[in-house]
Amino acid sequence: MRKYLLVLILVTASFGLRAQSLPVGTPVLEDYYRRGQLLGIVDSSNSFCDRPFFPIDALKIKNGFDPDKSLEKENLSKSNGILVFGRGKGIVKLLPYIWINQFNTDRPAGINDGAMIPARGYQTMYSRGIYVKYGHLSIQLMPEFVHAENLPFAGFPDTRYDPVWAEQLWYQIYHYVYNKIDQPERFGDKSFDKIYWGQSSIRLNFGAISLGLSNENLWWGPGIQNALLMTNSAPGFKHLTLNTIKPIKTSIGSFEGQIIAGRLEQSGYTPPEADRRYFETLLYVPKPDDWRYLSGMVLTYQPKWVPGLFLGLTRSYQVYSKEMGKSFGDYFPIFNPIGKKGNGGAAEDAKKRTQLGSVFMRWIWQKARGEIYFEYGRSDYFWNLQDLELEASHSSAYIFGLRKLFPLKAHQGEYIQFNMEVTHLEMNPTTQNRNGQSWYVSDVVSAGYTNKGQLLGAGIGPGSNLQTINISWIKSLKTIGIQFERYVHNNDFFNTYITDPRMNWVDISVGILATWNYKNLTFSSQLDEISSINYQWFYTPIAGGPAQYWDHGKNLYNYHFKMGVSYRF
Fold this sequence. Notes:
Helix content is about 15%, strand content about 40%. By secondary structure, it is mainly β. The protein has an 18-stranded antiparallel β-barrel. Strands 1-10 form a two-stranded antiparallel ribbon. It starts with a helix and ends with a strand.
């Protein structure tokens, strides 16, 4: 390891080198910056809709991991982990040690946890790294190690030995869904150990613009719990990036954005009983042994005349590498016309690629200490403008939310925070009428919108809905709160194949959340009690009972505990 660090320093010393990111999902700190906008202590020209965030560049502060300057005030960042070289032109800085642990008692639960996998039992992720810059060049090396106990649990096939349903029919349905997405129910039958590049990057930075190669997680859009195209629900993926590291201010307002060209990988895992056959036909269709090319972009605009308002759009395409063309439009289809007619109509289908897109809005009201936000997306083309006008809801999904801080007059600097967010991915009748598909699944790109078996977009998954309410006490980096969630699992699957209104699978959860800081340490914790009603859509009607008689199905309780600790320099 020491030899590697020495080589890294020597290499950077020979180049011209700048931009240290705050990784997506950094416990405690990331939400502090966004919350600070509502209190007027963070520059309101930053949208927080295009992350990772670059606090040193965007806010002109010394230490991006010390947002409230508590380390500086207590003289705890005197060294700041920095080695200066090249007559002051270069630095080597130690990045925070981050250790995250989570535990599920009965089944997998939890989203927005990066390289961690859906698993029962104990799981841990450890990350540490260094940041080196010299002139315009910056290197951030921040790998991640994941270990998951990955204990067995009752999955979909285990519940389907039910006299009401033909067993073989259930397996056909089960594999029909998993033939369109690489989202394993369980990541193998042994413990899981993996090392990833994590939040690493190498960049050339010029003013507000950065060009480089990165493996960092991305978050596009204004959502706090979810986003439609990019979140940290999957491990980071390798991508070339051209992005802003601070708003570009013009005479009409400020702009932020990112363009990426990335590589997505398969998980390497199959659904349970992948060798099951029906009339000698294999029900599960193996995924192509091929990586996928991803082209994506996000653009955010803040009008000069409306302070605090952000308007933006996202777009992404993916295609198996063996199906790619060689033209500019094949490498960067994000610049092609939005309507299918303008893209050549049926000729677009022959290219065997899928697209997703969204528009969004975030509006900060500093005087009211609040914000509202909204994202609307489509997973399918509209043919032309008339098609969009007639059936704007086709293949749509949306997220909307609000946050408000109420000051405690008797305690200066303390607030009660109210946050509410709704995510809706379920297909509507218009989509079903046009033979549309759930978000993130695909007939032509059978791995779906995933990387290494986990979703790039909203972690709740295809056809699902989530409603969240959070009420918290806030004081600087310290928070204590309670969170209520209602999570409806894959209603597209339910409405298509099950239909019995008594068999919805819904999780009702109550959680206690807290963050705290003590000197160089920050802590984050969450404890959820999750009641799964009709787990895996399993409900057996009482023989001879009324048609609309509701009784207990297969209900399951799961306790989800998560705790993170980081040491800041």
